[in-house]
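Quick entry between incubations.
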Amino acid sequence: MGSRKGKCMVFERPPVLRAAASVVGKKEGEGPLGHCFDVVNEDAYFGEKTWEKAEASLQRTSAGLAMQKAELAPTQVDVVLAGDLINQCTPSTFGLVEFGIPFIGLFGACSTCAEGLAVGAALLNAGYAKTALCVTSSHFSTAERQFRMPLAYGAQRPPTAQWTVTGSGAFVLDAGMPAKSGEICIRAALVGKPVDMGIVDANNMGAAMAPAACDSIQQFLQDMDCTPASFDLIATGDLGALGYGIVKDLLGRDGLVLDNVYDDCGLMIFDRETQEVEAGASGCACSAVVLAGHLLQQLREGILNNVLLVGTGALMSPTSFQQGESIVGIAHCVWLSRQP
Amino acid sequence: MNMTKAEYGRYVESMAEKSALVKNMALSFVMGGLICVVGQIFSNLYMGAGLSKDAASTATSVTMIFWGALLTALNLYDDMAKVGKAGTIIPITGFANSIVSPAMEFKSEGLVLGLAAKMFVVAGPVLVYGVVSSVIYGLIVLLVHHIR
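Done. Structure below.
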């Protein structure tokens, strides 16, 4: 059974992150974390005919790889929780249909990775599933064409723009056995609430999501009686340089000094000096592949012991944006911990 | 966080890195100028070959549309825009870029509902309001002539 502390879900039998897989594109492979990912594909189409099929293929590959690492057949997985940025989440359904696993589609924009882990952990802890697969993806070209301009159009990118990560991360959650020493489990999670601070610029998602990140981090620390020092790392999903600065500054004003424990996945995956990504990275895959490829490795090696993943999402659609609506931010917290 | 939306907007404005306006304008000036120089060279060539001034400028427009479309198709025009900033938006080549790029992008949705329908997604408003304003301008000229 689970319990609740304030607004947080606390897992009494913490689900174990049995395996994870990351698949990325060429540009991500050339970044500082390039060596951490399981698959780096040079072909942006991933052997398919359309960008959308390419993104579906990303999910198929990462999900297949994660199950293979966990030594599970698709029939042994009780539920898959997946989502992406594209209308009606078709890359998720088309990518995962062939596995025949009961499917829950999620939309949390770029917070989908954390959302999937939180919901999956809750299902497992409550006993409704023994094994869950959480998958998410984004593709630069599908996102650009849905939300912005055609790729070959000579549009200008302002310094606050972020680069959508091409990739997919998949995670196998397992409640079959208690975590053994050195295994990584999910201790608690907070489902964030939507926050609207009136940002309307689709080229400034970091500023739109930062208030939600502040809100969720504060709520989580307060409910769980923690301080930033309780964690080796607090990692927001994809706030980029501006959002990262805002979170640090605003929480600092409220007396929460994040200093050395705070980083943003959107600042880790690309080299901003040389890779022309302006404020940093974004997309569902940003936090998913950084977690699957990089952070979990550091947790396994004991370099990190407690990580608070704060998945951030900008909730908007091309229609809401064209109608002048503001971008609603959201942030979900997931506490990942290495079993001592 | 105790801020209203308006206060947060101003706060974000103060934190955000600004575009390098002077540098971007200088690069735009150079790129836009270069494109015009190329156009002028074609214009002179056509006149040298015996075309009248009007015919030569029409031929130049057609030539520049061709180059804009070709560079877009080769995925080079967006690289030019990265270097030459807004200088690449200037009429004719930029217009060709704005029509060819969505045509390429939406080809995957078919020749009718994709390529043809989406072709004017960027340039369409320019055409619509360009035609509307030319009609209004024509009416004003007509009225002025009548009054005289």
